[in-house]
Amino acid sequence: MSQIVVLSGKGGTGKTSIVLGLATVMPSKILADCDVDAADLHLIAKPQAIFTQDFVSGELARIEAAECTQCFLCQSRCRFEAITMEPRILAEHCEGCGLCAFICPVGAIKMEPRHCGWLYESRTRFGAMVHAMLKPGAENSGRLVTTVRRRANELAVQEGCAHVLVDGSPGIGCPVIASLTGADLALLVAEPTVSALHDLRRVHELARHFRIPCLVLVNKADLSSERLREIRDFCSENGLRLVSEIPYDSVFTKAQLAGQSVVEFDPQRQKPRFEAIWDLMRETLEKTALVHL
C-alpha cells in the first residue's frame, strides 16, 4: 500500500481540485482529507458517513458553582483571561493548563476532557473516505490529522486498497508535518505567482527533510511565463520532475459549482490529462519501491 499526499506551500493553488481529479482516475484507493482546519473535500465528494467518532484532546476547566466560595483566586491568576467574575470558564480562552484547579483552595474546579471535533468514515462515489471536522477555534489539529491518516491506512488494509490519497493542509505547519510523515510520495502543487517559488521551496525542504520523493504540478500555469520559468528552473536544479502544467481554465470553477470533479465535468479534455499525471506518479512509486528492495 502506498501513501500519496498532495501539498502546497500556500492555500488557493487548486490542491483539492487536483486531488478530486486524481480520485476520479485512480484505482483502488482510500481518500483522506487531512486539511482538518478548513476541510473542503467533502463539498464535492458528498460523503455519506457510516461511522462517526468524537475527537477528544486536551482538557477544559469547569467550575462547580455549588462548591465555589468566590474567592476569585483562579480569576486573578489565570494569564489567559479565561475566567470571568461570575466566575465562569470561557472555553474559547481556556488553554487547559490546570493552574486554576491546582490553586483552588476548595477544589471547586475540575479538569475534564475537551471535545474538539469529529472523525468520520464515509462512502463516496470515488470510494471510501476518512475525514474530520474541528470545532471553531479548536486546537490539536496535528493530532487529528494523524488520527485521520491512521484510520485511512487501516481501512486500506481491510479493503485491500493499493493507495491512500491524502489531501494535505497548505503551508508547512504541524498539520502538514502530520500529513507528510511516513508518506511514499508527495505531489507539490504550485502556481506561478510572486510568492510561488518561496512557497514551493519551503514545502519541498520539509518533504526533503523526511526523505519523501516529490513531484511538482503547476496549476494556472499560464498566469505568468516568468514565474513559470522560475519554477521550471527550481525543479531542474533540485531534480524534481514536473508532471504537468495545467493552464488556467474556468472549467475548474464550473465543475465546483456543479458539485463534480473536473474530470467528471469535462471528461473529454481532463480525463487524459489526469490519467497522464497518475501514470507518472505510479511510475515514481514503482521506482521508489525498487530502490527500497
Automatic annotation (TrEMBL):
The keyword Iron-sulfur applies. It holds the Pfam family Fer4. SUPFAM superfamilies: 4Fe-4S ferredoxins, P-loop containing nucleoside triphosphate hydrolases. Residues 85-114 form the 4Fe-4S ferredoxin-type domain. InterPro entries: 4Fe4S_Fe-S-bd (IPR017896), 4Fe4S_Fe_S_CS (IPR017900), CobQ/CobB/MinD/ParA_Nub-bd_dom (IPR002586), P-loop_NTPase (IPR027417). Keywords: Iron, Iron-sulfur, Metal-binding. Coiled coil: none annotated. One of its GO terms (molecular function) is metal ion binding. This is p-loop ATPase, MinD superfamily. It comes from Desulfocurvibacter africanus PCS. The lineage of its organism: Bacteria, Pseudomonadati, Thermodesulfobacteriota, Desulfovibrionia, Desulfovibrionales.
